[in-house]
Structures are given as structure tokens and as C-alpha cells.
Amino acid sequence: MTLSRRRFQGLALGAVALPILSRFAWAQAYPSRPLRVVVGFAPGSGIDILVRLMGQWLTERLGQPFVIENRPGAGTNIATEAVVRSAPDGHTLLAITPANAINATLYDNLNFNFIRDIAPVASLARTPCVMLVNPSVPAKSVPDFIAYAKANSGKLSMASGGGTGSASHMAGELFKMMAGVEMVHVPYRGAGPALTDLIGGQVQVMFPTMTAAIEHIRAGRLRALAVTTAARSEALPDIPAAGEFVLGYEAVVTDGVGIAKSTPPELIGILNKAINAGLADPSIKARLASLGVTAFPGSPTDFGKHIADETDKWAKVIRFAGIKAD
Is there a contact between 144 and 240 (Cβ–Cβ < 8 Å)? Predict the structure, then answer.
């Protein structure tokens, strides 16, 4: 081999290695400044509480502050688009909720494609919804309620916190579809006002998250007929799962974190590892359990598959019920 050829090969190998070394060095220095987590809901919401809890832990783990930026509006689409348009440098994250999977079908003219434009980083937690009725409703079980709803078809009001397309709305619509009952949807701007009217008897049934509902259940202000997980919840072990009566029914709020699609996978890997370590921390697990929430660790691939499955699931419900965005 001639000297010139060896020099050429050496330069070529160096050119290939340089980007690899640069990315490695970048990953070693990451994060280099505070990280921003964009939340599509107001402060105090379930996802807001969750990311603030994890943000405190991650700040200590990664050595940079996690700053929560609440950007509610348009069913979380404002927050999502902000992250889609952000620099793919690993410093701007999106709090992902079921709304992201639901909105893919609910809205016709979004400026982004969620699955195409957001890369999954990690799932955080799963929260069941709870099927609640006002105590004046005579039904004491899911079969009782189905019979009562069919006998009063279209006369019962079903509240939802968060409005059309919210997780509580979709949990109720899935129940209507699978149980074959008709109820009138009454949307509210948040779970608080909806639960207040449910307690007052202005509406008869609601499917809020356990986090929002658990204290009302324990105080006896509302009657829980079922949890919406496939199996019973440890937080409410005496309450049956709706799937025990409506075969295959499940509606669980799964929250997580995403990032702009072209973010280097090395940075996504760092975040995923740190988040999963946090979810394994006994203090985090205990805090989540107190809220009726279960830690849900996993890989970016696992979370991406879950998002795709949920997008397909809720698309079927939206089309069946003819739901349109407000």
C-alpha cells in the first residue's frame, strides 16, 4: 500500500469517526442548561403534579433544573406544537397525555402529526379512571347502571372534566359504545366543577381520574361503581373493574414525556434512563401510590407502541360516536 493511499484511508476513517466522537462528547456534556417541560394543562392538573414531582428528582439526578412551562389551550395542541417546533437539542420536553393520542383523530387540521413529529422518551405513570354516580342514582353496580341507563335512554347526563375529547369524556364514550347505552355528554372546563355538579345531582355519572375522585369516594360523597383498569386497583381494592362486567373495557390515563423527533437518540437514552431510575425510587413510588397512580417505566420503543395503540383505539371511538372538536 502506498503512503498516499494510507493517508487517504486515515483521513477517511477520521472523517467517519469525528461525528461519532462529537455526538459522544455532546452526550457526555448533556444537559448543559435548564430543561423546559411544556405542559398542555393548567397548574394543579394531574399531569402537572406528576411532571413537577419527577422534575424535582431529575434536577438532582442530572444536575440541571427542570422548568415547568404551562401552556394550556386547544386541547394541548398549543403545547405540542411548541415542542414540535423547538430545537432538537434535548432541552425542551413535552408532557404527553391521552389527549395527544385522541387529538390525532379529533382535530382535522393540525399543523403537526404527533406520531411523526414527536419522539417518545419515557412513560411515567398509569392512572385509572373511576365510574362515579351521584348517590341518588339507584344503581349499586355496573350491571344495575346499564339496566337503569337503558330504561332511561338519553335521559342521563354524563359529565366530563376537561371538555370534549378529554380522557374522562373518552372513557365515558367507550363505556357507552361497549355497553350499548345512551347518555347526554355535559362537558366542563375542569374536573373540579364537574365533580361539584355530580355531587349536587345536576349530572348523574362521570368517569374522572382516580386522582381527582378518590377523596370524594372515601368521604362517601359519590358512589364508585367501577375502576376502568383491566384489574382492580390497589388504591380501591373493594371496587370492581368495569371489565368484569363489560368484557374488554379498559380506559387508563397513561402519561409520559416526549421530545422533538430529530433529537439525537443518545440524549433520549440519557433521559429515559434517568426517568426510569426515578420511577424505581421508593419515595417516588410511595408518592404516586398516595395519588392512586402506578409507576409505568419502559423504553422509548415501548412508549411509542403504546401511543400508536391508543391512537388507533380512540380513533374508533371518536368515529363511532361522531365526536367533533369544540
Answer: no
Residue in 98, 85, 121 with CA at minimum distance from that of residue 307: 98
CA distance 269 to 254: 20
Give, to the nearest 10 degrees, the angle between helix 300-321 and helix 167-179: 60
Distance of alpha carbon 102 from the chain centroid: 10
Tell me how far apart the alpha carbons of residues 66 and 58 are, in angstroms, rounded to a whole number. 7
Diameter of the chain by CA atoms? Answer: 93
- Classify strands 118-128 and 252-260 as parallel, antiparallel or unpaired: antiparallel
Residue 9's SS3 state is helix
Amino acid at site 132: L
Q: Do domains 34-126+253-321 and 130-244 have the same CATH topology?
A: yes
* Global confidence as pTM: 0.85
- Rounded to a whole number of angstroms, the CA Rg of the chain reads 23
Cα separation, 43 vs 48, in Å, equals 6
CATH assignment of 34-126+253-321, among 3.40.190.150, 3.40.50.1220, 3.40.50.300, 3.40.50.970: 3.40.190.150
CATH code assigned to 130-244: 3.40.190.10
Per-residue pLDDT reduced to its tens digit, 132-185? 999 999 999 999 999 999 999 999 999 998 788 999 999 999 999 999 999 999
Cell of 223: 358512589
All three cell numbers of 237: 381494592
pLDDT in tens, 226-258: 999 888 888 888 999 999 999 999 999 999 999
Rounded Cα distance, 304 and 95, in Å: 14
